[in-house]
Amino acid sequence: MSRKSKRAVGIKYNEAEPSQAPTIVAKGYDDLAEAIIASAKANGVLVHEDPYLSEFLTTLDLGQSIPEPLYYVIAELLAYSYVLQGKVPENWKQAFPGIEEKI
């Protein structure tokens, strides 16, 4: 029985350029995937495991922007990671007064 190889993909969102889509900054399989995940965790980067998303993202080249059909998926993951870190985007503060006290 063959075992599926582990995949890891790192994406980066440049907060200084919010109009740019996140880009692929790391990707790998098996041992390299484990190293990418370990490095992310060691540096306080949140790790999300989704075999379907990682399968698609590994088809992209390093430095390539994520495609438009994935904008909402990635945006939701980024927003969720910000909330987990206690960060609240400015436009959320305006739209939902008092949100910072609830996080």
Automatic annotation (TrEMBL):
<comment type="similarity">
    <text>Belongs to the type III secretion exporter family.</text>
</comment>
<keyword id="KW-1006">Bacterial flagellum protein export</keyword>
<dbReference type="InterPro" id="IPR029025">
    <property type="entry name" value="T3SS_substrate_exporter_C"/>
</dbReference>
<keyword id="KW-0282">Flagellum</keyword>
<dbReference type="Pfam" id="PF01312">
    <property type="entry name" value="Bac_export_2"/>
</dbReference>
<dbReference type="GO" id="GO:0009306">
    <property type="term" value="P:protein secretion"/>
</dbReference>
<dbReference type="InterPro" id="IPR006135">
    <property type="entry name" value="T3SS_substrate_exporter"/>
</dbReference>
<keyword id="KW-0813">Transport</keyword>
<protein>
    <recommendedName>
        <fullName>Flagellar biosynthetic protein FlhB</fullName>
    </recommendedName>
</protein>
<comment type="function">
    <text>Required for formation of the rod structure in the basal body of the flagellar apparatus. Together with FliI and FliH, may constitute the export apparatus of flagellin.</text>
</comment>
<dbReference type="GO" id="GO:0005886">
    <property type="term" value="C:plasma membrane"/>
</dbReference>
<keyword id="KW-0969">Cilium</keyword>
<keyword id="KW-0966">Cell projection</keyword>
<keyword id="KW-0653">Protein transport</keyword>
